[in-house]
Amino acid sequence: MQAIQLDPPCSGWGTINKDPKVRERWTPERLGPLTALQRDLLAKAADLLAPGGRLVYSTCTTHEGENEEQALWALENLPLEQTPLARPQGFVFDDPGLGIEDVLRVADDSEGQGFFVAAFVKTGDAEVATAPKRDRSNSMRLDKLPGAESIAFDALPPGRAQEHNGRVYWTPKPCVELMNTGLKAQGTPIGRLAGRGPKTKFRPEAVAWGLLPVGPLPSAYVAETEELTRLLSGQGLPSEGRKHPSGLYWRGLRLGWLTPKGNRLLWQER
Q1: In the beta sheet, which residues pair with residue 191?
Q2: Which of 87, 183, 219, 227 has the CB geometry, 3.0–4.6 Å to 149, for a possible disulfide?
Q3: Which domains are present in the chain?
Q4: To which H or E segment does residue 119 belong?
Q5: Which residues of 86-125 are buried (b: 16+ CB within 10 A; e: fewer)?
Q6: How far is CA 86 from CA 64, 66, 92, 104, 109, in A?
Q7: DSSP 213-265
Q8: In what order do the strands lie in the sheet with 237-238?
Q9: Which pLDDT band holds residue 134 (cuts at 50, 70, 90)?
Q10: Nearest to 13 by CA among 25, 30, 1
Q11: DSSP symbols for 18-43
């Protein structure tokens, strides 16, 4: 990005003319979470900014811990240099604190409200700007998980699988690229994860049936009519050593999934 306007959540001390109790609600002792969030957002903005790009940090508070301290922290910890700001006419300004200069601190007795503005430019050269973007998605190699061997991944649009709270989504490539800019995207749910660590398994959901290949894979279960009758009556089939869900076929039709339960295979509708 070439330009970012960052207006983070703040205490709102500058709005005291219209909210006389704002400083009673937001005492300095309660500002820890806010100032931590402001620094996280400053770091995120600096990360998204291209070298040579401009960042403007503004708040509607007059508290030094949310203003001058944050500007100094950014200069000391982020690849940013300060850009001087001229004082526009029509405002009443206070001198900034902590020895910092070239920022704007509008006083509470201005016609509007008190606020603070600081401007920065990101350091670095063009080579840094063209470096590969860091993958911010919670991506995973679904094809390496037990239980996913019956999925026809070549039938999916270009993209990747990602996990969120135990559910697996297939996220198309354009959405993945948006996620690398800091936006959030999930995609289409295709299953869930069961177990933890090396015992993690993939359990497909009904929506994934359409991802089964036209012909059965070696790992799929091709049922005879008698076996299908048993499944329809609620009975199971011998697992024959199968430890993961298998695609169920009958006469070339895709019917769903067989899931091992002990030494039996049970028909699962999702």
Answers
A1: 168, 204
A2: 219
A3: 3-129 (3.40.50.150)
A4: strand 115-122
A5: eeeeeeeeeebeeebeebbbbebebeebbbbbbbbbbeee
A6: 20, 21, 13, 8, 20
A7: -SSPPTTSEE--HHHHHHHHTT--EE-TT--S-EEEEETTEEEEEEEEETTEE
A8: 221-222, 246-250, 253-261, 264-268, 237-238
A9: very low
A10: 25
A11: T-TTHHHHS-GGG-HHHHHHHHHHHH
| Tokens representing residue 132 in the block | 């590969």
Amino acid type, 148: A
* Alpha-carbon distances of 60 from 103, 104, 106, 201, 203, rounded to whole Å: 14, 12, 9, 50, 49
Instruction: Give the number of C-alpha atoms closer than 13 A to the C-alpha of residue 35, restricted to the C-beta side.
Output: 19
Instruction: Tell me, yes or no, if the pTM score tops 0.70.
Output: no
Q: What is the pLDDT of residues 29-86, one digit of tens each?
A: 788 888 999 999 999 999 999 999 999 999 999 999 999 999 999 999 999 999 999 8
- Alpha-carbon torsion (167, 204, 202, 137), positive or negative: negative
Both tokens of 143, joined, read 């094809």
Tell me the average pLDDT of the chain.
Answer: 78
Q: What tokens appear for 213 in the block?
A: 């290949």
Angstrom distance (rounded) from CA 98 to CA 29: 20
Closest to 110 (Cα-Cα) out of 6, 15, 9: 15
Is residue 20 exposed (0-12), middle (13-18) or buried (19+ Cβ within 10 Å)? exposed
The predicted-structure confidence for 140-181, as pLDDT tens digits, reads as follows: 566 566 766 656 666 666 777 777 767 777 777 766 666 555
- Collapsing DSSP to helix, strand or coil, 81 comes out as strand
pLDDT tops 90 at residue 205:
no
Identify any residues that bridge with 114 across adjacent strands, giving them in sequence order.
Answer: none
Question: Taking a C-beta distance cutoff of 8 angstroms, is the pair 116, 104 a contact?
Answer: yes
